[in-house]
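dumping these here so i dont lose them again. two proteins, back to back, each one seq then structure tokens. dont judge the mess
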Amino acid sequence: MTIAFFGSGILSAYRNGTATYCRGVIKALYEKGYRTVFYEPDLPDRRGYEDINEPEWVQVKTYDPTFSAAHLMLDEASTADIIIKASGVGVLDAWLEAEILTLKRENNLLVFWDMEAPLTLKKLEENPVDPFRLLIPRYDLVLANGGGKPVIRSYNRLGAKACYVINNAADLAVHYPVPAQVQYQADMIFLGNRLPDREARVWDFFFAPATSLPHKKFLLGGSGWETIHLPPNVGNLGHVFTADHNVLNASAQTVLHISRHSMAAEGYSPSPRLFEAAAAGACIITDYWDGINEFFEPDREILVAKNGKEVEVLLEQIDEKGRIAIGEAALNRVHTSHTYNLRARQLDEIFHHHVNNLLNPSWIIPV
């Protein structure tokens, strides 16, 4: 099958948290025979921050963020078997969500892929006249990056024909254990961009423990933290290219995972960073959110803290043997449950099921 995918970007992960997710899914689908063209707007702040060159498993087409340029891309995409509009493209989102529906044919699938379902659903709940409410029932499928059963129930109430959750995962060809490097050794590392929906939690779970534990070394990676006055024991790495994630995760004693506030509030929404760190064999400390135990077993495969004070206690108590054991258990869990090959298998079944329903509607009784 062919896929036309309108997203925020796939070549650069700079201020684009969904890039590695899209890469993992599309690459795994390619190995199952799917061929994807990814349409992304040409945004100036991403230029110069590309993590990867265009790979064999996806064709990338950029367009000027104008109605006329986007319309040309839609015309080109109209022949695909599956046409996907991701949330949060960054430009022309509402227009694209409506225009893609004009491409409906009898035998194609139109898919809305929500990359931040808790945020989208909160916005729809707060605005009963949001025009997107009327569009949801017209899509053949809604896919959600995280959110679990609560997100599925919410989309069903909004009239979605079908909704499935496709969680983040790890690409084992990209994320795996590597030797530690001295310059990245620290008691704890946190990788994450500075976002309004996350900053307060970073102060609680990361900066506060760093301040209280001046004898320990902390490393911070991500965009937007340059203007923050950091404690003296916190090193600021700035933007970290995805190619360096493995060595950072493997070098630190512990890796801190902090959810955005909206994701933590709704639960069931592990970020890509969680699976990347686990695939590198890291000992992870995560903030608490509902559904953690559906992905990793607390105290055996992952450590859980409800606040910064609990992070401090874990950092003081855990020894090398414990860190190694938790990292190895997390690595094994990723291999058995959280790879993009497994997510692609799930998607393949979903796509074929719905294509078959289009070609053979349930109300037609076979002779």
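---- next one ----
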Amino acid sequence: MVNELEKQAGLLAASIDDIGIYKTIEEADAIADSLGEAANSRVTFILNNGKVVGDSNLDINQIRAVDNHIDRAEVSEALKNGSGWVSRYSDTLKQDLLYFAVKDGNLSNPNIIRISVPLNYLESAAATLQVSVILLFVVVFMPSRSVYRKVYTRNS
């Protein structure tokens, strides 16, 4: 799932050259809202000073009231190394989330684009994968076992 978020974050970063070009929170948030809907994930725009200027899951008043994000692990890691991720409880949304953050395209003074999904999304994806593996086992193993019995019985 982290790899998938990394791919999505990379696509978002490729489409947003510089978060700093948006003149208002309303303008930045409108873009974050559109991208969040397209990615089916939470998208957050964070300036390199930690100020949140857009979030697909928050309205304008909530964005203005949100804490500075400069000390968030994924944000500081992305500013330092280009990307970072963490899973933790979101006090804002009151749920566990998996976060992945990347620098935007501003090479001289980069900002952060962060994408996140609820951990219960991961649990349901894992459960779906587990059911798929079981069905694959039944579909592949059971017929091959029947063929083995026929071949073994004929050769005995």
